[in-house]
Structure formats: structure tokens, C-alpha cells
Amino acid sequence: MPKSNKTKTPPKGWLWSEDAADYLGVHVTTLYRWRRDGIGPSSKRLGFRYYAYKVSDLDAWLNGDTARDKPARAAA
User: Fold this and answer.
1) CA-CA distance, 28 to 7, in Å (whole number)?
2) What's the whole-model pTM score?
3) Rounded to whole angstroms, how far apart are CA atoms 44 and 53?
4) Residue 45 needs a FRET pair 20 to 30 A away by CA distance; which of 5, 34, 55, 64 works?
5) CA separation for the pair 20, 52 (Å, rounded)
6) For the segment 9-46, what is each residue's pLDDT rounded down to a tens digit?
7) b/e string for 45-69 if b means 16 or more Cβ within 10 A?
8) 18: exposed, middle or buried (C-beta count within 10 Å: 0-12, 13-18, 19+)?
């Protein structure tokens, strides 16, 4: 699989980790840390090392409409 996800289009309505981080206004490392710690928006593993985020889940998380922890902007 290529090093970058940019060569493969994610499923419709989903963003790769890098794009999801841009969408949230955080660094991709912060997004990885949130996923590891069980906070932040939910994601889905696609393949061995690649994660995608549903845009509607990102929006819901930003609005505090999910059961997971609210945005941790200070951790960004």
C-alpha cells in the first residue's frame, strides 16, 4: 500500500486521518493521540495502518453530541 492515503479515495462522506486533522484544525499527531487515548471523534480502521473519519461524526464530536469526550482544544 502506498505511503500516503492521498492516492486512494476514502469512502464517500469519510476523510483520511490527515484530512480529518485539517478539518478539525489540529495536527495529525494530536488526532492519533486522541484515538490512542479513547477521546476525540470515532474512527474506522481501513487496512493495516489507515484510519478514516466520518464527516458527520467529526461534526457531531465538535458540537459535543457524542458519548465520547468533548473537544480537547487545549491538548491540540
Assistant:
1) 18
2) 0.74
3) 6
4) 64
5) 8
6) 888 899 999 999 999 999 999 999 999 999 999 999 98
7) eeeeeebbbbbebbeebbeeeeeee
8) middle
